[in-house]
Design a protein that fits this description.
Structural class: alpha/beta
Helix content: 10-25%
Number of domains: 2
Oligomer: single chain
CATH superfamily of the largest domain: Medium-chain alcohol dehydrogenases, catalytic domain
Largest sheet: 7 strands, mixed
CATH architecture of the largest domain: Alpha-Beta Complex
CATH topology of the largest domain: Quinone Oxidoreductase, Chain A, domain 1
Radius of gyration: 21 Å
Bound molecules: NADP nicotinamide-adenine-dinucleotide phosphate
CATH class of the largest domain: Alpha Beta
Shape: globular
Distance between the termini: 22 Å
Number of helices: 9
Number of strands: 16
Strand content: 25-35%
């Protein structure tokens, strides 16, 4: 279909059906191509019209599926509208002076083939294209920045520290482990399968790894790998793992609270039993939100791009093809189906 002011295209979308409680299901979303979009930014606007290439499946999208009240960090998705999240896209048209047709960008976009982005300050132009574009959903995007600030800025690591990382084969965890190894730390990761244990030890350079699903006593497992205790815990999961870690922290240790994925599907928040350890062991436990640190993005790129080019960092990605597979793929994060950064390929970059 053509109109005088830009082609009009069918736009396949992943629509959020209704607010979710408990475990998210594929049927909480549906895929439709019933709407159309004009491939032109409205005249006089600063909007940017993009073709989406890659979409990131991130655990916080589950939080946005619930009814959120009074949060300064997230808003709920709107039932009947497409999901939104981080992605990589190509600019088709722009009313914003900083973006032009053909630019590659990453940032907040819609779960659809084409998006009209009305707040382009949420987009970053991609300047380095000698690395895979999909990395801007992971290693060079929010998960990479999260690993960088959560480890280097929040934990104040030192050479020789004993570091424990949970969800260690995921988008964030695999990088925390590698950043810690590059600093000369001893690093152990916990993951949910034997395949992931093998990857951590044989591909990502962790010193040790264990499958938390096979450990009946997490305290005993941690004592096995950290007989002298843990200096730094990078927290991704919460629940029983955090309680067990609290029993194994060394005096003056640091806990960087990045995420608590085991809580996101609970209707009632879960409590902890061993918090007094924070007092007696003088532990600093600090939560952080990566968006507060985006002024450090250039510093992060300066550090990480040479590591990628020199092959000093490996990045595991789990890329599925097709927007229609988005709902099942997103839901798979909560059973650990992803191995590495979970990405949906919407369209190949030409
Ligand atoms: P991810 O690790 O790529 O994917 C999630 C993984 O979590 C799954 O593969 C699964 O791995 C594990 N998992 C799922 N349910 C679990 C449960 N009930 N108990 C234990 N493990 C479970 O995700 P990511 O993008 O790297 O995110 C990791 C954490 O960082 C999340 O908590 C996320 O919310 C948080 N985050 C925080 C910020 C921030 O600004 N603070 C920014 C980005 C991400 P297994 O097979 O190992 O179970």
């Amino acid at each position: 279909m053509a109109s005088g002011e830009g082609e009009v295209m069918r736009n396949k979308q992943v629509i959020f059906r209704d607010y979710v409680t408990g475990n998210p299901k594929e049927s909480d979303m549906y895929v439709t191509d019933s709407s159309t979009i004009k491939l032109k930014a409205p005249q006089g606007s600063v909007a940017v019209l993009v073709k989406n290439l890659y979409l990131a499946c991130d655990p916080y999208l589950r939080i946005r599926m619930g009814r959120i009240e009074g949060s300064s960090v997230f808003t709920s998705f709107t039932p009947g509208s497409p999901l939104s999240g981080f992605g990589v896209a190509k600019v088709l048209d722009s009313g914003h002076p900083e973006f032009k047709e053909g630019d590659l960008v990453w940032g907040t976009t819609g779960w659809e083939e084409y998006s009209l982005i009305t707040e382009p300050e949420q987009l970053f132009k991609i300047h380095h294209t000698d690395v895979p574009l999909s990395y801007y959903t992971g290693l060079l995007g929010v998960p990479g920045m999260t690993a960088f600030v959560g480890f280097h800025e929040v934990c104040s690591p030192k050479r020789g520290d004993s570091v424990f990382v949970s969800a260690a084969a995921g988008a964030v965890g695999q990088l925390v482990g590698q950043f810690a190894k590059l600093m000369g730390c001893y690093v152990v990761g916990s993951v949910g399968s034997k395949e992931k244990v093998d990857l951590l030890k044989n591909k990502l350079g962790f010193d040790e790894a264990f499958n938390y699903k096979e450990e009946h006593d997490l305290d005993a497992a941690l004592k096995r790998y950290f007989p002298k205790g843990i200096d730094i815990y990078f927290e991704n999961v919460g629940g029983k793992m955090l309680d067990a870690v609290l029993l194994n922290m060394r005096p003056h240790g640091h806990i960087s609270v990045c995420g608590m994925i085991s809580h996101y599907n609970l209707n009632q928040p879960q409590g902890f039993s061993n918090l007094t350890s924070l007092i007696y062991n003088r532990i600093r436990m600090e939560g952080f939100v990566v968006f507060d640190y985006f002024h450090l993005y250039p510093k992060f790129l300066d550090m990480v791009l040479p590591y990628i080019r020199e092959g000093k960092i490996v990045y595991l990605e789990d890329i599925v093809e097709g927007l229609e597979r988005g709902p099942a793929t997103l839901v798979g994060l909560f059973s650990g189906r992803n191995v590495g950064k979970q990405v949906v390929l919407v369209a190949p970059a030409e």
